[in-house]
Amino acid sequence: MIDYKLDHICSFAVRGTPGIPPEIIGPVAEGVRVNFYSSGGGEVTGPRIRGKVRPVGGDWLRVRNDGVGVMDARVTLETDDGALILVTYPGLIDLGEDGYQQFLRGDLPSEVRLGISPSFFTSHPAYVWLNRLHCFGVGEYRAAIREVKYEVYSVG
After folding, report:
1. Of 5, 13, 116, 117, whose Cβ has the fewest other Cβ atoms within 10 Å?
2. Is residue 18 over pLDDT 80?
3. 17 pLDDT band (50/70/90 cuts)?
4. How high is the mean pLDDT of the chain?
């Protein structure tokens, strides 16, 4: 067995823009394209990172024919001491076998669970350790409040 440990890196919440629904681009060769913009900001908490999610970024989602959503998301964190940290994360969302057809109708789920593989990018000396981590995260999206919450862990 391989010896490893999990460390909780941070929790963060990202809010969508109030009053602006997701952009449903529609069916393209790879599936249904939907853009979610995260200009509502958010918070980041954790044992070594605290601050806010800046009101920029988004998730450029593709829903495959089998109902699996493939995420391509980016947000910028701003720590309480002024560091900027870019977080990019692919991820998967199982929307069920009829997820593709639901998105075609514009019938978005009220809640979904998702898994992500975040990477961190920063040049701030206090946080360059983030650039070396291999991470995974779990999250939950709630459409009623246009918010997604994540718990992020490193594997080492």
Report:
1. 5
2. no
3. confident
4. 94
Q: How many domains are contained in the chain?
A: 1
Closest residue by Cα to residue 152 from 83, 93, 94, 87? 87
Range of the domain at 60: 6-155
Q: Do the domain assignments include residue 1?
A: no
C-alpha 50/C-alpha 16 separation (Å) is 20
Mean pLDDT of 77-102: 96
Residue 35 lies in a domain: yes
Q: Is residue 95 part of a domain?
A: yes
pLDDT of residue 12: 97
What would the 3-class secondary structure string for 64-120 be? CCCCEEEEEEEEEEEECCCCEEEEEEEEEEECCCCHHHHHHHCCCCCEEEEEECCEE
The answer to which of 27-31, 80-84, 120-124, 149-153 has the lowest mean pLDDT is 27-31
The C-alpha atoms of residue 149 and residue 8 are separated, in whole angstroms, by: 14
Residues 32 and 100: beta-carbon distance below 8 Å:
yes
CB-based burial label for 120 (10 Å; 0-12, 13-18, 19+): buried
